[in-house]
User: Fold this.
Amino acid sequence: MELERKVQLTHILGLHVRVSVKLVEEARKFKSDIFLSTEKDTVNGKDIMSVLTLGAGPGTHLVLRAVGEDAQAALDHLEALFLADFQT
Amino acid sequence: MELSDFLVETALVEEMAAKEKEPAIRELVLALNESGAIKAKEVESVVDALMKREELGSTGIGKGVAVPHARHPAIRKLVGAFGHSSQGIEFAALDGEPVHAIFLLISPSASTGQHLEALALISRMLRNNTFCRLLRETTGRDKLVELLRDAHDFLT
Assistant:
């Protein structure tokens, strides 16, 4: 299964280290491969260095893509993180 | 952006004395002070800001590298220090490994853009395993300065 979902980064500091670490930790809970894309680049959502390379600032639109048997659950879970502004 | 845009070359510690997180952070903040990038009276509050940030989660992002960072009202432009430790520093890193290279960043209170850009730049270098190995294994001030000057060649 391969699914995509658009999210917006509303955190005022952007995709900084703490938010990136949280995102990667949560992505790793799923079997699916997780990818994160900006207009410029697509990276492995389970690798902290890669997520940090995006340097995504506040307001950036991102596409989450999950490939695998639990893709749906993974995207639901990760989207919720964005909607909650990573305040979990 | 390049490393030299924010790394203060005179704030490069070729062999860190510290073996643990707080002393390591203090050592690099003092190096920035000696380089003239931070005033002596700001040292304690800068160390506090960096340690408060660490309490939210370690900035030891793996591969033997940590990127402690904080914003501070007394800072006018992004500044960074670099420290190397052959023995390794206990940093509660995400992968549990000791830290051999520290990029310490302090940015002005109001700015996030430059800080994100600097982190992205450092991360792009760290995705290169050869660069990570060289960061761990390179010793001596001149060789480290050279490695950081050439770091652009390792961008992924």
About this structure: Chain A has a mean pLDDT of 94. The domain at 2-83 of chain A is CATH 3.30.1340.10 (Histidine-containing Protein; Chain: A;). The longest helix of chain A spans residues 71-83. DSSP finds three helices and four strands in chain A.
